[in-house]
Write a structure and sequence with these properties.
This protein is α/β, with parallel strands linked by helices. It is 48% helix and 13% strand. The chain starts with 10 loop residues before the first helix and ends with a helix.
């Protein structure tokens, strides 16, 4: 069995590795470290959780052991797609540079003040760890030069592409020397990745330790095909099903990450779990960096049992002891499923991935099974056996909306009934009402308001008598014929 001591690493690095409790490299580390130390470009393809971060941090520290950094000109650059992954890489450097006191690093991520980052850059850093957006912000401000970069790493390259960072990456490559060493690491190898590597890597050593886009064999994968009783209740019932699934795992579920596709659903699910007594907290891109860091630290340290996350937490986060992953939503991209469930079953541990699939997501689910080349085990809806013997519960759930609706309908009818009758009456009495309004308009304008109600009532009574079928049908203008209308033209002219 290969050991780290066989990989020509710096003795100080080996000592730090030993202090961390590692003895043997993972397959991706064993395959990537030797060519990286030789100065070759490397294309590493391995599933999430196999130790890709150490595959470039260890040789980078060894190569940077000699020499010194210059102000505003870092000697190495690590690009990460998310703040969390960048922070994780920074922690790895802290671990493995334990005995390299002179090596310095800077973490450039959003949500943090520029002032402190500028101070570190001005002092000169050996290792610069950054997200593409914040890195370019510093470059545009004239605070950073990349002409001294000797080693450049693109971590989670496929995720970079998914997030639309291709233009930024191309620009950053253009700012670095042509003679740089480039290391690409990715969980999947799409055609687009192939194109990018052909453009930016020179005769890379390709290290592929697992079948592309496959999940670890020690992760049990199950799916529940779910359909709500009604469309407006689907969300509520789906969250209830999630709680049932969590309860079914019992003590085996020591902690879990629950993935949702949308940030809004992350907040809703987290709030729902907390409401029912589950220790849960949300994490997504809209939260403040300090809050995201606090939540992640609590989850890593065991103070938080359930982490409800968007895909911002799906990549690169090193939380070695996640027992379960729940996919509340089927991911839109099949590759994201591999990354999500890769949060469990790390470092040889067993894990379990549970997914809830609604009818509209079946197309995406089929794509996942096609990608992983495996049929995911179906499990029963936990709500069905619970509801069948206890229909009273379901009736009780339905009763509250019904009770809410009935008064509304009653009140609506009571309010609308006079209004519904009024138009019918006015249609019948259209002519008399017009005539009745003509006279007071000219003869008694001041008395119009007080006489309006009685006149309307009289009109309705006459129209009702007319509908009664007697000989009292109103002809013409009725009893309210104004006197001037009966006058001839000559009589009107004489007056």
């Amino acid at each position: 069995m290969t050991k780290f001591s066989d990989l020509n690493l710096d003795p100080k690095v080996l000592k730090a590795i030993d202090d961390a409790g590692y003895e043997s490299p993972t397959p991706i580390q064993e395959g990537a470290i030797p060519p990286a130390l030789e100065g070759r470009d490397v294309l590493g393809i391995a599933q999430t959780g196999t130790g890709k971060t150490a595959s470039f941090t260890l040789p980078m520290i060894t190569m940077l052991g000699k020499g010194r950094a210059r102000a505003r000109m870092p000697r190495s650059l690590v690009l990460c797609p998310t703040r969390e992954l960048a922070a994780q890489v920074a922690e790895n450097f802290d671990t493995y540079t334990k005995y390299h006191k002179k090596l310095s690093k800077a973490l450039l991520i959003g949500g943090v003040s520029f002032k402190e980052q500028d101070r570190l850059i001005d002092k000169g850093v050996d290792v610069l760890i950054a997200t593409p957006g914040r890195l370019l912000d510093h470059v545009e401000r004239g605070k950073l030069l990349l002409t001294g970069v000797q080693v450049m790493v693109v971590d989670e390259a496929d995720r970079m592409l998914d997030m639309g960072f291709i233009p930024d990456i191309e620009r950053i490559f253009g700012l670095t020397p042509f003679t740089r060493q480039t290391l690409f690491f990715s969980a999947t190898m799409a055609l687009e990745i192939e194109r990018i590597t052909n453009t930016f890597l020179s005769n890379p050593a390709r290290v592929e330790v697992a079948r592309q886009a496959t999940a670890s064999e020690n992760i049990e994968q199950v799916v529940m095909m779910f359909k709500g009783s009604r469309k407006d209740r689907e969300g509520t019932e789906k969250r209830k099903a999630l709680r049932k699934l969590i309860d079914a795992e019992g003590d085996a579920c020591t902690n879990a990450i629950i993935f949702c596709n949308r940030k809004m659903d992350v907040d809703v699910v987290a709030k729902s779990l907390k409401k029912y007594g589950y220790d849960a907290a949300p994490i997504h891109g809209d939260l403040d960096q300090s809050q995201r860091t606090k939540t992640l630290d609590g989850f890593r340290e065991g103070g938080l049992r359930f982490l409800v996350a968007s895909d911002v937490a799906a990549r690169g986060l090193d939380v070695p002891s996640v027992s379960h992953v729940f996919n509340f939503d089927v991911p839109s991209h099949a590759e994201d499923y591999v990354h999500r469930i890769g949060r469990t079953g790390r470092a040889g541990r067993d894990g379990k991935a549970v997914m809830i699939c609604v009818p509209r997501d079946e197309k995406n689910f089929d794509a996942i099974e096609k990608l992983i080349q495996k049929q995911i085990t179906r499990i029963d809806n936990p709500l069905k056996p619970a509801d069948a013997p206890a229909p009273s519960e379901a009736k009780a759930d339905d009763a509250s909306p019904a009770r809410e609706d009935k008064p509304k309908r009653t009140r609506t009818r009571s309010r609308n009934k006079p209004k519904d009758d009024a138009p019918k009456t006015e249609i019948q009495a259209d002519a008399p009402v017009v005539a009745a309004e003509v006279e007071p308009a000219k003869a008694e304008p001041k008395a119009e308001a007080p006489k309006q109600a009685p006149r309307e009532n009289n009109t309705r009574s006459r129209s009702n008598r007319g509908r009664g079928g007697g000989n009292n049908n109103v002809v013409g203008l009725g009893d309210h014929l104004p006197g001037f209308i009966a006058m001839s033209f000559e009589e009107r002219s004489a007056n």
